[in-house]
Amino acid sequence: QVQLVESGGGLVQAGGSLRLSCAASGRSFSNNRMGWLRQAPGKGRDFVAAINWSGSRTFYADSVKGRFTISRDNAKNTVYLQMNSLKPEDTAVYYCAASTQTSDSPPLLAIAYDYWGQGTQVTVSS
């Protein structure tokens, strides 16, 4: 069982920064690959970033490379998404998710994740 609780969303102007946090509880957090996905109104849930259990490997969507950084602190049972140089097109509900599935490939699809946070709204104004 994994419970995910997100925080850090809000309203920010273009070019600004936000850091999202995802606090996890449960016995399996440290063994999970973790990801951030986002969903804009009327759109599907798109991959943003993922990180393996140790934090040694990360993967990013092309649209956020160089601007977003995913990290995790297993001692604090927390995963983060640092978002810099935000653009209006980054506006979406952002979800933290955990994958218990075993794969050498990064989890790029929503179906790869087993546990989800409640989502946090990020709005970037022009």
Q: What's the average pLDDT?
A: 92
**What's the total helix number?**
0
Helix content: under 10%
Estimated share of beta-strand residues: over 45%
Structural class call reads: mainly beta
**Tell me about the biggest sheet?**
7 strands, mixed
* Helix and strand element order: EEEEEEEEEEE
Q: Write down the Rg.
A: 13 Å
Distance between the termini: 40 Å
Give the overall shape, derived from the CA principal axes: globular
Low-pLDDT parts are none
- Tell me the number of strands: 11
Describe this structure in words.
The chain is mostly beta strands. The chain is 0% helix and 49% strand. The strands form two sheets. Strands 2, 4, 5, 6, 9, 10 and 11 form a seven-stranded mixed sheet that branches. The protein has a four-stranded antiparallel sheet with strand order 1-3-8-7, with no helix packed on it. Strand 5 and strand 6 (58-60) form a beta hairpin. The model has no long low-confidence stretch (mean pLDDT 92).
Blueprint of the fold:
Elements: E1 3-7, E2 10-13, E3 18-25, E4 33-39, E5 45-51, E6 58-60, E7 68-73, E8 78-83, E9 92-99, E10 115-116, E11 120-125
Parallel strand pairs: 2-11
Antiparallel strand pairs: 1-3, 3-8, 4-5, 4-9, 5-6, 7-8, 9-10, 9-11
Could you name the key traits of this structure?
seven-stranded mixed beta sheet; globular; mainly beta
Brief synopsis:
This protein is mostly beta strands and 126 residues long. The protein is 0% helix and 49% strand.
